[in-house]
Amino acid sequence: MMKIRYKRQPAWNWLLYLGLIYIFLLLGPLAGFDISRVVGEIAKNPELLIQQILVGLVNGAIIAIIALGYTMVYGIIELINFAHGDLYMLGGFTALSAIGAFGVTDSSTWQQSLIPILAALIISAVVCASINILTERYAYRPLRKAPKLAPLISAIGISFILQNIGLFWGGLGSFIPVMGGNAAAPKSFPDLLPRIDILKQLGIETSIQFTTKDLIVLLFAILLMTGLQLFVKYTRWGKAMRAVAQNPDAARIMGINVDQIIVMTFLIGGALAGAAGLMVGLYNNTIVFTMGFTAGLRAFTAAVLGGIGNIVGAMLGGVLIGLLSALSDQYFSSRWTNAWVFAVLVIILAFRPGGLLGENVQEKV
Amino acid sequence: MSNQLKQFFKSTITLGAIASLTILIFGGWSGAVIGWLLGTAIGLTSGEGKRVANPLQGAKLAVLPGFGVGIWLLIASLVQGLWLLPASGQRGLSVSSAMLFGLYSLAITVAAAVIMGAIQGLPSYRRQIATLFNIGAIAIIFPFIDQIAQTRWIATVIEIQIFVMLALGLNIVVGFAGLLDLGYAAFFAIGAYTTGLLSSSQLGIQWNFWLVLPIAAVIAGITGVILGAPTLRLRGDYIAIVTLGFGEIVPVVFRNLTSVRLEEPISKIIGTFMGHPEWAICLLGCDRPINLTGGEAGINPIGRPILPIIGTFTSSNYFPWYYLILLLVIFSYFLIGRLKDSRLGRSWTAIREDELAASAMGINLVQTKLLAFAMGATFSGFAGSFYASYITAIFPSVFDFSVSVIILCMVILGGLGNAIGVMLGGVIIMSADRLYLPQLAKVLKGVLNNSVLPNIANPQWQDFLATSIDPTQMRLFLFGLTLVIMMLVRPEGLLPDRIHQEELHGNETEKPV
């Protein structure tokens, strides 16, 4: 599509931006953004800031993993895969059911729970990858030649269907005891990761808590992201994926099976979503069938923030969004956190639609 | 002959299924009411594709399908009276009274079909007048019939009309201009909250409903412009996401604006850092923060419309509400119809079909899209204002993402761009959601508790059936399925707009590269 230029006088620009900043400062306090109060609180207790940054980093790492699914699919077929957030929710439900089936509970030692966790990781990754591949095959592939809005609407439909499956799954308490009684209620996920305060073990006297639980989730996320990056950069499959993202037709002429590559993208994205579902369950110890929607929007915001189609960008964006939510929870008001995240989305799209690191998408006429 | 029978069966299966489902779950005289409505629809469509020379021929064409649906009604009526009622633990009907209900429904269906069929045989000009007259008469006497037949559908029908109006508004944005708006409920919320704030005791402003209605619509339209201005130059799917983000922010804002206190920022920042907090200039809510939106509890009660003869509209008397929203829907329908044929409407179509070509033809893209956004938001504001005043209480949770998707479902199911189709989609989806699903849940629960559960030995299955068989929990699934299936099978909707259909199917002949 042609870039349409909108000319505005430079002086106007400055006035406009100043006005916007003023309005922001005026209305911000309504949503908890009160600079003087925030600065005061940080000055009073700087350790709390570091604590929140750590929380934000770990949450951001999980968001980044979900964001990877969005960004990879968008990079390849230019579809905002709305259902991805709900896929991650289903990943959490699968993992919980699997862990429940192994009979692991809160009181299990970590030696007892290690194998169930690994099994749950594999099961939820496989289940989510299969669901993702099936949706691609039956809901998106037939629409690949249709106008762009058609697959998007189809994805919204799939998202609703998956969400309802989550609700139904939560109501299976009579067969899966870990689901409890009420279908719509949040499910409690057993707290299996060891919780040893690392800083205290190192002999540092501080109120900041950084436990092995945080460390494990963070390391696992970093491991997944590095693995994906290496895969995309150095393997034949990764090279083919990048080729398809750049130009599917040229890639096909070069002998790449485009359909196969797309299926593989959905497979990897789905497996990552399943892993993220398990990690969130282990980290937050609660999952609910509506969590996919909000998490999905946050992850999508992260993907857009980093530049959609850009894998490193998605990781950066995920961490930034995680930090923003953690700081907003602490210093603004947790009731407004969602509004802040979406405001970032709207602002980024309005002023810098390419994202921070630039998008990696071919515009097709 | 058997082929003809097959054809006959095929032509009545959809309507017949709807009709028999209605009588199965509602019972009583509902069969007669639905027979009347469906019979009219049959008469309207039976002459399609054939040349109908005179009223007699039209009536003849309509009588057989009408009779077919009537038979469905008769069978359903018998099943309901003789089997379903006893199975769900209620007192069953005698064979004669079940027959009476069934035969009566059959007669009404055939009569309605014949009348409408005969009208289709009139000469063209008179046919249009008479069709309009017949449909208008149905719309006008519906509340009375509903009262006589004791079906108690009218409250839902009013809600259906509110959503039909919303769908008509969204149709401007999605159907005419081709911009996917996923946060349409936000404008609905803004209309509703404007009405709530201006005609309730929340702020002590209690203006007349007739004054607030246009104000709410205008404010919703202005918000549409404010949202649209920075974002409409984006690509199509980004617009969808921005509107979605906006639609998520608006309920959060309404949920949390419970203690509003505004201070001038520059003086405040200087004051704080110089150590003189009293320098800050207070603008709003100085003595005591204002509770603007009432948070989760919402705004309640909201003023109701007052008319000279009728007096204040009350919640026990649905008639004035029904006619008011009917008028609003008709008004919107004609206004949007005129808009579509105007210069602006044609530019919308041009933009939808090819943005680049449209801009080359001298259409100002941003301005035209902005107008589509504003128009859509305005109608949404109308609907929101009526809604607030009708329910007399508004809560932020009413306006979440699923509402936007329901409205989108209506537009897509009915037919993008076609007002009649969109209205049909609205009626189908809303009546399924608000009328059929809850009632079906009730009936199923009755049957389960009385006939199925006692016969199941396995306690696990018993528990599962008792908790999980609930059609109202499947709403999201059904909406999602509607969207996916419509996209795969018939992306142009049930009653497509001609231009749109060509657009969607035009490149099917092209070979893939």
Structure commentary:
- The complex is a heterodimer of chains A (365) and B (513).
- Chain A is mainly α and 365 residues long.
- Chain A has helices at residues 10-27, 35-44, 46-77, 84-101, 110-140, 149-170, 198-201, 212-234, 236-246, 248-253, 258-284, 291-306, 311-333, 337-351, and strands spanning 187-188, 286-287.
- In chain A, α5 (110-140) packs antiparallel against α11 (258-284) and α12 (291-306) crosses α13.
- Chain B is mainly alpha-helical and 513 residues long.
- Chain B folds into 2 domains: 1-151, no CATH class; 156-407, no CATH class.
- In chain B, the strands form 2 sheets. A two-stranded antiparallel sheet of chain B has the order 1-2. A two-stranded antiparallel ribbon of chain B has the order 3-4.
- Chains A and B meet through α1, α2, α6, α12 and α14 of A and α9, β1, α10, α13 and α15 of B.
- Chain B: This is Branched-chain amino acid ABC transporter permease.
- Chain B: Pfam families: BPD_transp_2.
- Chain B: One of its GO terms (cellular component) is plasma membrane.
